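Annual report, structural modelling task.

Input specification for the zinc ion complex:
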Amino acid sequence: MLRAEPRVLCRGCDAPLTNTLADLGVHPSANAYLTEDQLAEEERLRPLHARVCGNCYLVQIATVWSQDELFDDDYAYFSSFSDSWLDHAARLVDDLIAERGLGPDSKVVEIASNDGYLLRNVIARGIPCLGVDPCRNVAEVAIAAGIPTEVRFFGQETARDLVERGWRADVIIANNVLAHVPDIRDLVSGLRILLARDGVISLEFPHLLRMMDEGQFDTIYHEHFSYLSLTATKRLLERVGLSVFDVERLKTHGGSLRVRVGHAATSPSVRPSVSEVLAEERRAGLLRMDTYETFGARARSVRTGLRKFLEDAKARGQAVAAYGAPAKGNTLLNYCGIGRDLVSFTVDRSPRKHGRWLPGSHIPVYPVEYLKTARPDWVLILPWNLRDEIVECADFVRSWGGRFVVPIPRIEVIP
Ligand SMILES: [Zn+2]
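The model returned the following structure:
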C-alpha cells in the first residue's frame, strides 16, 4: 500500500505545496563521503523531491535530515580548492570596497565564511571583518589565518547577539548560503537585524532560470534546500522589510544571480536590472506552474543519454573515470543508477576526500595524479560548471588519447 506523504507547507510563505518540480527517488546525503568501515554498513536513504510553491514560486525540498546529520565536523567542503572561485571572491571584495568607500571604520560580515577564502581579501585591506560559519573544521582554518570567525549557524538569534557586541554591518556578504539553510526566513530576518541603516547586503545564488533552462537537475540535493528565482527571492526579502535594488548575472555555478539588498525604508533607488531579470523570468514561464511540471522529463532524458554513453563505452572495452567529487555529482550518479561497474573511480583535488567512497554509488575517490596511473579512455567531469578549468588542469589526459565528457545539459564529448 502506498503511504501518503505528509502535507508539506512552503517555507517561504506557509502555503501548502502541491506542485512537483522533480521527484528524484531516494538518496543518501550528498556530502556523506564514506570511509572503508562505512562501506559495509547499510546507507540511510531519504526522498529527494523538489516542489514549487504556487503562491510565492519558491522551489524547495523538504528537510529530511537534522542539521547535525548534515553539517558535522567531517563536512568535506573547502572553498579554497577552486581557482576561479577565489578570483571571483577577490573581485567581489574590490567592487564592494570601491562602491561603499569602506575603510578602517567600516564593518564587513560574511555569512558562511568557510575557511576565510573571501575575508582574507578584506583583512588585507585593513577593514574590520567577521566570518560566521557552523562548520568547526573549516572555521578553524580561517581563525588560524587571523580571520575572526563565529562557529555557529546564522539566523535572528546570532544576528541579535552580534549587534549587541558592536557588529552592526555596513556590508554583509552571503554567497551560496540562502539556498543552503533550511530556515530561509530566519536567515533573511537575521540579515535585516544585522544590517546597518544604510548598509548593503550582497547575495549570490544559482539562478533557478539557468537550472531549468539547462536541465541542471543534479544541483538538487538534500543540503540544497531552496532553488531561487529573482521573483521568489524578492518576495521573500520584502516579507522581512528588505528590498532588492540591483541584480547582476554571473557565470558561476552554472549561472548565478548577485543581488544587492538594502533596508526597504532606506534602500537606494531600484535599478533597471531588477525589472529586466523579473521580465525575463516571466517570459520564461516561471510564474506558470506548467513550466515547472516539464522539468522532470529533462532529468529523465539526461539519465537515458548518460547511461547509454557509459554502457556503450563498457561494451567497447573502454575505461571510464570521473573527475571531481561534488555533491551534485552524487545526485547525478545515484539518480542515474551508476556505480563502479560503469565508472571505476573518480579523482579530486581535495585531500580530505581521498581514500573515501562516494555515497550511494560507492565509487572510490583518488588524488588527481592517479589518472596518470590508470590512463582511462574517458574522464566524466562531474562539476560541469568548472569544465574549462578542469580540462586545462588535467590536459595530460590527452597524452594517452583520453577524452573528456560532460553530462549536463546533455552528454557532450569535449573536442
Ligand atoms: Zn510559498
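DSSP finds 15 helices and 17 strands in the chain.
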